[in-house]
Amino acid sequence: MIDIYCERTGPGLLAEPVNAVTNLAFLLAALACWRLASRQGVMSADIRLLTGLMAAIGIGSGLFHTFATGWSQLLDILPILLFQVAYLWIYGRRIIGMGTGWLVTSVVLLVGSSVYGRQFPDLLNGSLIYAPALVMLISLGTYHYRHANIQPALLLQATGVFLLSLTMRTMDQAVCPWLPMGTHYFWHLLNGLLVYLIVRGLLVNLPVTSRKKKI
Known about the structure:
Elements: H1 17-21, H2 24-40, H3 45-67, H4 70-96, H5 100-117, H6 131-147, H7 154-171, H8 184-203
């Protein structure tokens, strides 16, 4: 059993009910983005992949907070990393117009630095692995603010949400004596909002020629 959150005080499938249930935020975000893409006429294979990974994050994390085993932890971590890679690639290709070489380099840096951060599980309660994602989001958010025609501030707003969610994740263990339930479930709720915001920012700014209508 992997016991790294305040809410879990012992073994059992129902030892982290709040941490498990709050992953519904990712499923709701995936559904909302799927409906938006369909309504806007921008549904494509890469958008299906992105929304599928959003749902996979919620399912994988829900399984991890239910079973708390090594295999379920992998199902928790892998979809998050794959979503970051997919979003970077799709946004870089379809919005920025980056070449394959730059995209591959960016993905290697993102994955490599994220994996390297896993060597320090006790630093910031393990949140160091998300530092590369924060850097990526700040970079894309700055580009989005300067160049996007529709809702240009959306990705920077999402960055603020991510900073708050990282704070909630980082402080979970520290607040156990005062908040037995901890704060990790805020990480799920806020990140559900986060992924919705950044995917929305992508969807509403796809080239007009690939859309049936504007928002």
